[in-house]
Amino acid sequence: MKIAVSACLMGDNVRYDGTNKRNEELICLLEGHEIIRICPEAMVFPIPHLPIEIKDGSIMDSDGFDHTERLTQACKECLAQIDGCELVILKSKSPSCGYGEIYDGSFFETIIKGNGIFAALCEKNAYKILTENDLEEIRRLLG
User: Is the pTM of this model over 0.85?
Assistant: First the structure.
């Protein structure tokens, strides 16, 4: 199966603070599948960079600068890269990849319902989307 996965979950140091969210259990489940690593934020921002969150529909960094246009373009480029993927596994809560819940834009780690920009594009294009919090469903799908 061809699967798109947030690069940080695979261990790539692409997060705003230069770290990753490597998920060993997920990586084991993905063995034997074709993996497309994606990170729209790494296409736009240097690593490390200021944290970003979605506030009132815009992508803002913690200094208040609006990055919506640049990140939206990167998300569209990532969407083209995952053509043919049967599953997309995204990092929860991320302003790009969060699916179902994201940070609220206050930079106080407050969670609200919503999708990141890339997750919203994937949903609009009818991709099957899961996060690292859905390991049981991933296990079931990958058999």
Answer: yes
